[in-house]
Design a protein that fits this description.
By secondary structure, this protein is an alpha+beta fold. Helices cover 44% and strands 15% of the residues. The longest helix has 43 residues, at 283-325.
């Protein structure tokens, strides 16, 4: 491919990447472009999952499902791969820190200094780790001292005769010299691909600490932040043949390039596999993929930021919903189930993902105004008086009032109105405002059906739950009058798929809405469907 063709392809890709911020759409665009630009057979895009410390494939040619690569190798493993001194001021704020040892031992690691032990050919033989400087953090002078010691002992001859007693002597000396709390001497087992502790302060008599360092090509690239060109995969120490063994594919050569944020933080790795029409990838191919990675990283970072914002927003919404559940353990989980049912209905009706997202949030928050209703009324086990029912009805006004104070993004700007309209009925007999059909938000109609269905099929203080078939039959009586018939049909389809049962609705006798089979409700001054608290 000529330089002009490459430039044109990259420009076209940049325009396409700029048109979307959804990872599931960005990922295949990037891998398809990578394969086309370099004449490769396959391409894979791995993104770093910071919470699980894994690389997860978002688009891997020829592979069904996700590929996940664990990166639990910690700071010692990072120093090993980078061949660099690692000095950490606050371990628990470093994403690469592996907390498992602290969890097992009950120790709390704060500051860390790790020096790889490399021979004259820059091969790593082991590592020396110091923990928790007693005053402040490890200094540059500490780094230089430990590095000098590492150079003095890092010879193959020394490691051949090294035993636990010698390792203890060295560690104890440097713990005292650096005025810190603990130290560990790691030795590389190249056959196992692990760094294993020969001696660790505070872990005497306990199993050795093991750190896996054979993370494969993608793991090496994301940890080191460097590109890697593999001419013969099966001759590379970094290549893991498990994927080939599982798929029957034969990997010959690879280019792997890191994806980084504008602050140089790792986002993931872009791999292209098996050059077509040539024995191996060229230097030009590497430059092309690096240019593609630079363009892709901008779009990926934007998409990840949007995704993180959405995750943060939804976690906040779930916490708000949990505060409603805290008022009454019997109805705990009601908001989440209403949200799930509403999303299921929306998907059954073929609504857009945007509408599904909005109804999910409105479903979580539809009863938020119940925070303003007295517990004695919400938890009452018998019939409500008219005054008590009027208090219950106020919760929709409270919901609207509270939610309108929140600064929702443009996407969710209608959530307050949708959430506050879930007791409105098409014939105007509902409460809140008493809206007629055309004035009720469609997504609110969905939440209405989901809310009533969940309430009828769950235990309440004033009655026991009823079968789903009976609840659906009750809803169908109000179809076209109080509730949208198409929404009820979608609810039924969703429920049957969710529960995996055959419908028996036709065998359930229809019950008038004002005569529900609940003794405790017989003298209430409202319909069951109007009081789903």
């Amino acid at each position: 491919m000529s330089i002009n063709s490459i430039s044109r392809t990259l420009l076209e890709l940049q325009l396409r990447l700029g048109s979307t911020h959804r990872l599931e759409q960005l990922s295949p665009l990037i891998t398809q472009a990578a394969s086309a630009l370099c004449g490769a057979d396959r391409a894979s895009l791995f993104l770093l999952d910071w919470e699980r410390m894994e690389l997860c494939s978002h688009a891997a040619s020829g592979v069904a499902g996700d590929i996940r690569l664990a990166l639990k190798m910690g700071i010692v493993g990072l120093a090993f791969l980078r061949r660099e001194i690692i000095n950490v001021v606050d371990a628990y704020n470093v994403p690469f820190f592996n907390r498992e040892v602290d969890h097992v031992t009950g120790y709390r690691t704060e500051t860390v200094l790790v020096v790889p032990l490399t021979d004259g050919q820059n091969r790593v033989l082991g590592a020396l780790q110091l923990l928790n400087k007693q005053e402040g953090c490890f200094s540059q002078e500490d780094e230089e001292k430990l590095a000098a010691a590492a150079r003095a002992i890092a010879t193959p001859e020394f490691f051949q005769t090294l035993d636990e007693a010698q390792a203890k002597t060295l560690v104890d000396h440097w713990v005292a010299e650096m005025v810190c709390e603990r130290g560990t001497f790691f030795v590389l087992n190249s056959q196992e691909g692990t760094l294993r502790s020969l001696y660790a302060t505070g872990l005497e008599g306990k199993p050795a600490i093991g750190v896996r360092v054979n993370l494969g090509i993608a793991g090496w690239v994301v940890f080191t932040g460097r590109s890697l060109v593999i001419e013969d995969a099966y001759q590379s120490e970094f290549f893991n043949p498990e994927s080939d063994q599982q798929t029957g594919y034969h990997t010959r050569n690879i280019i792997a390039v890191p994806l980084k944020s504008n602050t140089d933080e790792p986002l993931g790795v872009l791999e292209i596999i098996n050059k077509q029409g040539a024995e191996q990838f060229s230097a030009d191919d590497l430059e092309t993929v690096q240019a593609l990675a630079a363009i892709a990283s901008v779009s990926l970072e934007n998409a990840l930021l949007i995704q993180e914002h959405e995750t943060q927003f939804h976690s906040f919404i779930q916490v708000m919903a949990a505060s409603i559940d805290a008022k009454d353990t019997l109805t705990a989980g009601h908001s989440q189930l209403v949200s799930e049912y509403a999303c299921g209905i929306a998907q059954e009706m073929g609504l857009s993902q945007n509408d599904v997202d909005v109804v999910r949030v409105a479903g979580f928050l539809h009863d938020y105004g119940k925070l303003g209703v007295a517990d004695v009324v919400l938890k009452k086990g018998g019939p409500l008086t008219k005054g008590e029912y009027d208090q219950i009805k106020e919760h929709v006004s409270y919901t609207r009032e509270i939610l309108t104070r929140m600064r929702f993004s443009r996407k969710y700007r209608h959530v307050p109105e949708i959430a506050a309209s879930h007791h409105e009925y098409m014939d105007g007999s509902g409460y809140g405002v008493g809206l007629l059909n055309r004035y009720i938000p469609f997504l609110a109609k969905i939440i209405t059906v989901a809310d009533i269905f969940e309430a009828l099929t769950a235990d309440r203080h004033y009655r026991r739950r009823m079968p789903a078939e009976e609840a659906l039959a009750i809803l169908k009586q109000g179809a076209g009058k109080k509730f949208d018939a198409a929404i009820i049909d979608a609810m039924e389809r969703y429920w049957l798929k969710r529960s995996g049962v055959v419908s028996t609705t036709a065998h359930v006798p229809l019950i008038p809405l004002h005569e529900l089979p609940v003794t405790a409700m017989s003298s209430r001054a409202m319909e069951e469907t109007g009081n789903t608290h």
